[in-house]
Design a protein that fits this description.
The protein is mainly alpha-helical and 457 residues long. It is 69% helix and 2% strand. It holds the Pfam family DUF2408.
């Protein structure tokens, strides 16, 4: 989409917003220091000021899409990720990046038509949660009206997409819902197989048999309901069945080349690389993820997405080479992984994450020790006592304090972990004392004369 020209009165706003984006990008790139809440708040106030100015020069009833809007979208994405990095997950600016990620996934679902009720419901629930959060901030006055209005507009647009998806599902007749859901699942399994390395003959066979079984239920090309009636929404299920057969044949015919034409190989390889990195982050995010890092991944995916023409990737001659569904699977998989990482972000600042992770590990170890029982000695419990002592000594006036003297988000969660560790340690000490008492009780039953001799020996 070509952006409209920037009006003369918006040029100073554009210049200011670009400057804010540059400062946020510099903040994101600086791995030597933790992101400071004071710096993020200053930039947040600066962008809200520019949005207020922009609202004053624009007409509320007109839709705008120029460079100011695209730059503002970048700024709000970066700000949102900064809020998540600081552990401020319950404040409305943190919702922006999640809403942007949901928009990408929902738009692709709408475009492909490959979804069922269980795919849509989680998004509907999450939108309700985010709306409650934004409304709370709006009513309490915690965030400026310019910010809450922007988010409410985004929420309304996404609600409209979700309603559209649900209405499309309601068009499918009750008799065909099980077939439709199964075909969606089979198609996903087929595409997932197409992306995997190696031959898939053994895995393809049961899927091919199931497709033939579904196809055999059609009479004269139509699925029949009870009493031989012809339910509505035949076209949806029939086209989905044909598409599954088409993918199946393509996988069989081009198994070695993974169904991707040479002209699309660079895009395929880049998407595979992004997917591998994001899947690794899903496994290690507690230790290695800084939420602002996700901005670069989102940007890369958007650039690839924009390469499509009428929903398809084309080569230099404008043709649509085979392997489209593989690329779309990878693209949508990456969008899904980013959303998963955003929605699983914990309300703990990056400054406290190392402490939270250490406590989580100590707690897990103590639980295992307690589960399998003793006997214990003071020496066995010493490493855990030392670890907790070191963490306790980091607190000032009962709180964990940041490098700049501020109190980072996540104090409650970290303190809860710390208290649980201390409780587990005390329980282990008590069980150790009970075992020692039992040992001395057994000693009392022994012959006093022989005891001394035995001890000497």
């Amino acid at each position: 989409m070509i952006n409209a020209p920037v009006a003369q009165e918006e040029l100073p706003i554009l210049e200011a917003v670009i400057n804010i984006r540059n400062r946020l990008t510099a903040l994101k790139r600086d791995r030597a220091e933790y992101i400071k809440p004071s710096e993020v708040n200053a930039l947040y106030q600066a962008v809200v000021k520019q949005v207020t100015k922009l609202n004053d020069v624009r007409d509320d009833n007109t839709t705008y899409n120029n460079r100011v809007d695209t730059t503002l979208a970048d700024v709000f994405s970066l700000l949102s990720l900064c809020y998540l990095t600081l552990g401020k997950t319950k404040e409305c600016p943190a919702a922006y990046s999640q809403l942007a990620s949901m928009r990408q996934i929902l738009t692709h679902m709408e475009e492909s038509g490959l979804y069922n009720e269980s795919d849509v419901l989680p998004f509907q629930r999450r939108l309700q949660e985010l709306r409650s959060m934004v409304q709370h901030d709006a009513e309490s006055g915690k965030h400026p009206e310019a910010m809450t209005k922007l988010l409410e507009r985004q929420l309304n647009e996404l609600d409209a997409i979700v309603r559209s998806l649900q209405e499309s599902l309601s068009d499918i007749s009750v008799e065909l819902i099980p077939i439709h859901q199964r075909l969606i699942t089979i198609r996903r399994q087929l595409v997932a197989l197409a992306v995997k390395e190696g031959s898939h003959k053994a895995e393809l066979k049961p899927l091919a048999e199931e497709l033939r079984k579904i196809d055999s239920k059609r009479v004269n090309g139509k699925f029949l309901g009870p009493g031989g009636i012809v339910p509505t929404s035949q076209a949806i299920c029939s086209s989905l069945l044909e598409e599954c057969f088409d993918i199946l044949q393509q996988i069989k015919a081009q198994d070695e080349s993974k169904n991707v034409a040479s002209s699309l190989k660079p895009i395929h390889d880049r998407l595979e690389e992004l997917r591998a990195e994001l899947e690794n982050l899903v496994l290690t995010h507690r230790w290695s993820l800084r939420e602002t890092d996700l901005y670069n991944y989102s940007l890369s995916l958007q650039e690839i997405d924009k390469m499509r023409i009428d929903g398809k990737f084309v080569d230099a001659d404008g043709n649509r080479p085979p392997g489209q569904y593989v690329l779309l699977y990878l693209l949508r998989r990456c969008y899904g992984l980013i959303y998963r990482l955003l929605s699983s972000s914990e309300p703990v600042s990056e400054e406290l994450i190392p402490i939270a992770n250490k406590l989580s590990t100590v707690k897990k170890c103590l639980n295992e020790v307690y589960k399998y029982g003793g006997p214990f000695s003071p020496r066995d419990l010493y490493p855990y006592q030392l670890a907790l002592y070191q963490i306790d000594s980091m607190r000032k006036d009962g709180k964990f304090v940041g490098v700049d003297g501020s109190v980072p988000e996540g104090q409650g969660i970290v303190m809860a972990h710390l208290n649980e560790c201390h409780e587990l340690l005390e329980m282990l000490k008590e069980s150790m004392d009970e075992e020692n008492n039992q040992y001395y009780d057994d000693d009392d039953d022994r012959d006093p004369e022989s005891t001394c001799e035995d001890d000497i020996e």
